[in-house]
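Severity: low
Component: inverse-folding endpoint
Summary: output formatting inconsistent between runs
Steps to reproduce: submit the following structure tokens with default settings.
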């Protein structure tokens, strides 16, 4: 994992995926004007879940 994406404190948490809330629909590498379901690093189709234990954390599942 790239250093700027790694957050040591969150990796120490035990988190459980909630219900699927969406999938990455678009890649945006041009600017920082992000809309819902847009990413600059995650591939299209990556699944997004809330963490059951923390409402401020989203979990992403991808096969890449």
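Observed output (run 2 of 3):
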């Amino acid at each position: 994992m790239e250093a700027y994406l790694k957050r040591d404190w969150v990796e120490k948490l035990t988190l459980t995926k909630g219900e699927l809330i969406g999938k990455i629909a678009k890649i945006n590498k041009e600017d920082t004007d992000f809309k819902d379901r847009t990413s600059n690093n995650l591939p299209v189709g990556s699944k997004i879940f809330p963490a059951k234990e923390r409402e401020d954390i989203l979990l992403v599942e991808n096969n890449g």
